[in-house]
Amino acid sequence: MTATTRICTAAVSVAALLGAFGGSASALAAGTASAVFVQNDNTGGNQVVVYDRAGDGALTQVGEYPTGGLGGELEGSVVDHLASQGSLVLDGENDLLYAVNAGSDTISVFAVFGDQLALRQVIASGGSFPVSIAVDGSIVYVLNAEEGGVLQGFAVEGGRLSPIPGSSRALGLNPTETPLFTHTPGQVAFSPGGKQLIVTTKDNGNDIDVFAVNPAGRLSKAPVVNSEPGTVPFGIAFDKLGNLVIANSAGSIASFELNESGTLEQLDQVQTGQVATCWIVGVHNDFFTSNPGSASLSGYQSTHKGQLLSPLGNTETEAGTVDATVTGAGRFLYVQTGGAGNVDEYSISGGGALSKLGSVTVPGAVGGEGIAAPTN
Q: 92 exposed, middle or buried (CB, 10 Å; 0-12, 13-18, 19+)?
């Protein structure tokens, strides 16, 4: 692998929160629409930092919440210590926020009350070095990156996670491949509808693994392995038709039809012309990739046939462009820039063009990953 490809995170009681807002849980939840959550992944003590979003998209910090665990740092990483997408996930259906504690092999579960959080649970992740979380309804899967990669399933019950018996699945990746940050899996994600679970393996196989999910939330014993040689598949997104869209660290973005059998049929692939295209976030049929080696975001549009167009161009960011989220009904994009531990703020025009609004510094977040916000 080339050097350029290698350039690629105090609990408030529920009672107190209810009292502060007049006892209305629904009123509290309503404020979540303007909140943005950022994980600093600090190895001395992981935190979720919360921001309020103003009408013009500007962010103002309103709180810091310890996760009860430690952040992690993969060997060889510089601006992307988890080398993953989806390490902080907002579960709007259950009003919960899930955060990985890679240095502690645990997951933190927060109740969400507008722009305030209450730590409900810290639970073992079911493996070593958790980096990514996927949620569909009452089922959650955690991707553990080290020791060959392990998936662990959980059920959401009463605002807490409970391990699903028999749900653990080893990915069987080579645990001795180095550097770790390019040879650990990149993301876990449910397909639209939740009947399949997808995992990217990056440079440890260059595969996109697809598991079937049964109604009880358990996975098929083994995945369908879709080999994509030399691409280093990393970030996962879906277009409006349910087609899979992958950011490849080797410098491309590709779209696939995801078949019920778990096989993939490639629809299109375009080169980004940028260095280390690893993360991807979508809104409607617009997609934005983070390219840390080029300090840029690249914009693309997907057609009704899954073809990828790139009229949106490249937009400069601060150093170390990593995890991103889109919120405000598709009007704003926020991206972590791990070089200085910042979040860059952008507005999105009706045509998908980005305009920079400003930047905020996240306390203790150099190299950190994990950002989430509601879509509305």
A: middle
Sign of CA dihedral 334, 337, 340, 341: positive
Buried residues in 296-308 as b, exposed as e (16+ CB within 10 A): bbbbbbbeeebeb
CA pair distance 253, 238, nearest whole angstrom = 12
Q: Is the pTM of this model over 0.85?
A: yes
Tens of pLDDT, residues 157-167: 999 999 999 99
pLDDT score of 21 more than 50 = no
Distances (CA, A) of 251 to 21, 184, 228, 275, 292: 48, 18, 13, 6, 11
pLDDT tens for residues 325-344? 999 999 999 999 999 999 99
- CA nearest to 287, candidates 246, 248, 347: 246
Answer CATH for 14-372 from 3.30.70.660, 1.10.10.410, 2.130.10.10, 3.40.50.2000: 2.130.10.10
Residues 6+ apart with CB under 8 A from 98: 88, 89, 91, 107, 108, 109, 110, 133, 135, 140, 161
Residue ranges of domains in the chain: 14-372
